[in-house]
Structure formats: structure tokens, C-alpha cells
Amino acid sequence: MVSIALWSFAVFMASVFAGLLTGITLTPKYKGGVRAVVWTIGAIVGYIMAFVSYSINLYNDAVGILGLSVLVCIVPQFLYKDSWSTKLSISLMACLIANVSTFMFCGTTDTLLGPALGFIKDSPYDTPNLIFFIVIKILVYAILSVLYARFLKKTIHHTVEAVEGKMVVFLPALLISVVGFYFINLVSNGVGIYPNTPWFFLLYITVCLIFVVEFWMIFYSINQSVKTMKTTAELNVATNIQQSMLPCIFPAFPERKEFDIFATMNPAKEVGGDFYDYFMVDERHFAIVMADVSGKGVPAALFMVIGKTLIKDHTQPDKDLGEVFNEVNELLCESNSEGLFITAFEGVLDLVTGEFRYVNAGHEIPFICKKGETFQPYKIRAGFVLAGMPGMRYKCGSMRLEPGDKLFQYTDGVTEATNKDNELYGMQRLEKILGENKDKSPSELLPLIKKDIDDFVGGAPQFDDITMLCVEFKDWMQNSGADISSTETDKEVLL
């Protein structure tokens, strides 16, 4: 009877250890006195369960491993605030730590030292050896409790917080590990591998190492999942921020009858480096911007925000666009530690005269469609890219648009879209689809081009951002006393 009582207490201690780890990890719902009473009642019930079970069969650990583990999992559901899945996950993890540490450190130590010290003569259940085993457990559990509280608890808290307490997906692995440990113990007992046999140490040190690795992999997968979820959430936020920064409400200026505009941006990744913009410089001048930042992803997107803001802020009425790019280039070069650069095209349309002034910093040439004609590439000399080198000078050019004329601008993701045969979409196919749909409005034209690109690419992955913009000059703006002759003079000087 003494052996049964001591062995029941020795096995019961693993559950006490598991309950301790669970209690110091979870968030209390009640005061310490209440928790102490409930845990004490649970402990008494657990010990009675173990004692009765081992009185019936000393070699059956079903209650000692599984039954007491269930008890450790039930009590926290009533005492702590966390989500049920968090409480169950922490409880199962604590039970797994208790079982693995029991066999890895306590059982193997007893196997090595018990016979040498004369504590095991007839059976490992001899009273001196059971007392020795209990002392080993007290020491091991005390050390592991301190190590857990010092190093592991904070990491577990961060993990639970990161997944917002939604630990359901991790429960199966923990549950299988706890139950699996019991079945390994059941099989070893069934074939006669006990602490006083030579195979006990080799078997359980191997099993425990396997479970330590498995536990580490479970914890690692949780943290990797957390990092992935966090990164995905951050990228979703970045995508939303980027999309909100690009004007996307169409028709853009429903009160303005002088022009119509439509633009799209399809990033290759969650966030892209392409950007477009359009805005009224003043009452009679309408600006468009199309640009492409080198690189992809978050760095390019951040640089895109800087470039877009600088270009818009420096575009002022009657200010030469070449000077605008001169200033923007200098500012970008000052804060470009990553060595990025921007190809950019900006144009400003005078709604009174139809004069379209533009500046090009290494960007694609636009397509112009005169009323009654077809789209043709407007060959202009491109300057150097923005942020590529300080001290660069940019020149403003000019053309005249008439009502009914359209301008199409894009990034190289359009012409360089690649199919599975590594063929480029190219300028010729772009010019062809533009010509076939020259009479379409900007909002009708761009979706047709995107569909043609998708048909060409097929299932091949998108490697670059695809950004397009089309503006149609529809009607003159009423002069309202503006001095058209001065604008004409400016045009002659620029040209």
C-alpha cells in the first residue's frame, strides 16, 4: 500500500507541475485565494484518481498520464480569462512539458543512479527508490519552472497575443503529442521495458528527444505562422494605404466638361512601385503624372510615396516643368540610401489654349491620338531618371491638343509583360490594340488593353506592375479673360 501511495504521488506530481506552468502563463479571472482553493480541490481529486487507478493496476498509466492531463486541461477553463483555445493549448503544452521532462530527466536519472545507490533491489517500486524518484522530480520540476518563467513564458505570451488568442489551429498537434506519449508508455510497459531494464534509458531518452524536437517544431511553426500573419496583415494595410494614395474615383472631376480621364494600377506584388496621379494645378491647368520606381515591394512603394508627394507639391501654376523635376531630383538624391530611382512623365494641359507641356525623366513615350486619326507613339527625348544623379537638368517640351484628342501613358510593365514562351507584349501589340479601340472613352479603353495583356500572358506570372492612364481633351474651357497670347509666347520660347 505504501508503494502504491508513493507511486501515485510521484505520478501525480507531474500534473502538479503542469498545473503550475499553466497557472503562471494564463491571465487570472479570480483572486489568488479562489484559484488556490480550486486548484487544491483539483489536486485532491487528481491524487485520489491516481491512487485508485494504481491500486487496481500498478502498471497502467492511463489515469496517471491521460486522466490527470484531462484534469489539468479542465480546471483552467474556469479560472482564467483567456480564450478557450488558448487555455486548452497552454494546458496541453504544459502536460507535454511535464511528461517529457519526467521521462527525460527524472526517469532516466533514476534508472542510472537508483541501482548504483542501492535503491532498486527487487523492483523500481521499492519504497527507497520511490522516495528517491520523488526527490529527483522535485528538483527537476523546480529548476524547469524557473527556466520556464524566465525564458519561455514571455515568448508564449507574445505568440498568443500575435494570433489574438486564436490557437485552435495548433490544438491537434498538441493533443496528438500528449496522447501519443501515453501510447508509447503503454507499449513499453507491455513489452516489459521498466526502469530497472537496460532498454528503458535508451528508449525513453530517444522518445523524449523526439518529443522535444516535435515540441520545438510546433512552437516554431506557431511563431512562423504568427510572423506570416503579421506580415500579411501589414502588407494588406500597405496595399490599402497605397491604393488610397492613388486617385481612384471616376469620373474624376464630374463637374469639369473639358476633359475625361481614367487610370489603373495592378501591382505585381502586394504593393508596387508604379504610381500615377492627376490633379488641378489651378482653375485652368490640369496635371497628369505617370512614374515607375525601380525595384518591387515595400521599398519601392515607400519611395513611390516620396516621389509622388514631391512632384505634386512642386508643380505650381506658371512654373516650368523642367524646373519642377530639377528640384524633385535633388531632393530624392538626398534621401536615397537604397539607390532607387524613378522614371517619370508629367504633363500639364492648359484647358483654355489646349497647350500640353510635359517633361520626361527616362519614362516610356506616350501615345497620342488626334481626333479622327489613330494612336501614334509621340517620340520625345527622355531625360535622365529621377534620383539617379544630383545636378541633372530637365527640359520642358510642348504640344497642342485639340478637343477630341487623347493621350495614353503607361509603365514598362505593359510592354514588357511576358508570356510562358518568354515573349514580350511589346509596343507593336500595344499600338495595335490602341488603334482598334481609338474611339473608346478612357474608361472603356484601359480595361480592353488589360484584357489583351492578360490574354497574351496567359498563366505566366506577373513580374512587373502594370499601370496605365488615358486622358481625353473634350472641350475648351471658357477663357474668362485669360491672356492667351502670353501663353503662346511662352510656348515659342520653350520650343
Architecture overview:
Helix 7 runs antiparallel to helix 8. The model is unreliable at 481-495 (pLDDT under 50). The protein is an alpha+beta fold and 495 residues long. It has 14 helices and 10 strands. It is rod-shaped and about 110 Å long. Strand 6 and strand 7 form a beta hairpin. Helices cover 56% and strands 13% of the residues. The termini are far apart.
Unreliable spans:
481-495
SS strand fraction: 5-15%
How much helical structure, as a percent, in the residues?
55-70%
What's the SSE pattern? Answer: HHHHHHHHEEEHHEEEEEEHHHEH
Characterize the main sheet: 5 strands, antiparallel
How are the strands of the biggest sheet laid out side by side? Answer: 1-10-9-6-7
- Number of DSSP E strands: 10
Mean pLDDT rating: 87
Oligomer: single chain
Query: What is the structural class?
Result: alpha+beta
Helical run tally: 14
Radius of gyration: 37 Å
Give the CA-based shape: rod-shaped
Compute the separation of the termini in Å. 109 Å
